[in-house]
């Protein structure tokens, strides 16, 4: 999941995330206009009149912006937090399965199957919202399992 995160260029949507994250560091919000360059792949349909992204939740952009602030702007820094969330998702799947089945073998098998899923690994290596959704969904389900009524 972590090997070669910097190897390939960011693909289109990852680049979108990175540009909006960079602009968050400059302006505080994910804007497609930095005063010099307008960056948007949908002819402005996802932006408001101030060129601020309004069609997607902002969490992925802020996560990437924090990573850029801490590690510098790079392909590796753009992808790292999402790979970490993928790793967290695997751990959460294990915890959920232990709680649901009371069987560590079943939980380990489920976590191993997720770890070996090529699709999951590809999503985990992308600077996009995919693993944020997966980890936060697991946390939500885990919180429901703690309810007493």
Question: How are the secondary structure elements laid out?
Answer:
Elements lengths: L11 H16 L31 H13 L3 H27 L2 H12 L2 H7 L5 H16 L4
- Please describe the biggest sheet, giving its number of strands, its sense, and whether it closes into a barrel: none
Query: Beta-sheet strand percentage?
Result: under 5%
Order of helices and strands: HHHHHH
Fraction in helix? 55-70%
Distance between the termini: 38 Å
Radius of gyration: 18 Å
Number of strands: 0
Give the total of domains.
Answer: 1
Shape: elongated
Mean pLDDT over all positions = 94
Briefly note the structural class of the backbone. Answer: mainly alpha
DSSP helix count? 6
Written description of the protein model:
- The mean pLDDT is 94.
- Helix 3 (75-101) packs antiparallel against helix 4.
- The longest helix is centred in the middle third of the chain and has 27 residues, at 75-101.
- The protein has one domain (12-145).
- By secondary structure, the protein is an all-alpha fold.
- The chain is elongated and about 55 Å long.
- It has six helices and no strands.
